[in-house]
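User: Fold this; tokens only.

Assistant: Input:
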Amino acid sequence: MHLPAPTWTSSWPAGRPVSVWRLRLNALGGDPEEVLRPLTVPSEQERARRFAFAADRHRHLAGRALVRLVASRRYDCTPDSFTLTEGPHGKPRLQDPPGDAPRLHFNVGHTGTVVVVAFSRRQPIGIDVEPRARTVDAPSLAGRVLTALERDRWQSRPAPHRQAAFLHVWTCKEAFLKATGEGLHRAPKTIESIVDGSTVVALRDASDAPDTPPSANEWAVRPFSAADGVIGAIVRKGEVPTPLSWVDATDLLSRVGG
């Protein structure tokens, strides 16, 4: 399985409908909170303090800081001038865009020291990332995550490749569930992946999918490599337009927040 490795830039992107921003926490240097705190609001800082581990605090603040930084540029306002809230199943969103501006959709994903945020100007979007070497009990999880067709396809792969193949499909489904805001309220095996070789290129409803929308058939998927050893997937309603803007925000965030 070979996933496209984007070319990440460190400058503000052109006005494209979809952009993906990445922050490498281990490249910020010093205490990441010193960079992230000025770009967040007190309620987000208070929530971060409840995490027992520094890594969890940093990931939470990083996601919110990226959202506020990009949205402030989009709406020409300060990072603390709008409210982030959550949908019915916990998906973060902008409560009310400033003025009459159209809503900026976004979704946050993270693993280890890598935090990514996908932004979409018109349609809902989801993003998920996982370490390629993540240890999971794939044979036990397959019954909950994979459809019968996917299980047959997965079991036909050489044993050394099954773990990575399982995580690839799982990441695409997680991105879809995050895009729709359903999360754990929809079973992953009600979504079926369509592959070209070993790479997921589309999603569709499985035979036991819910009768009510959203239908997986109406969403596009784009797998990608988020960093060395980190796989990812973007899912957006309608299509994932090409080209996307891929921004490594590590330097930008240091200059703004430091």
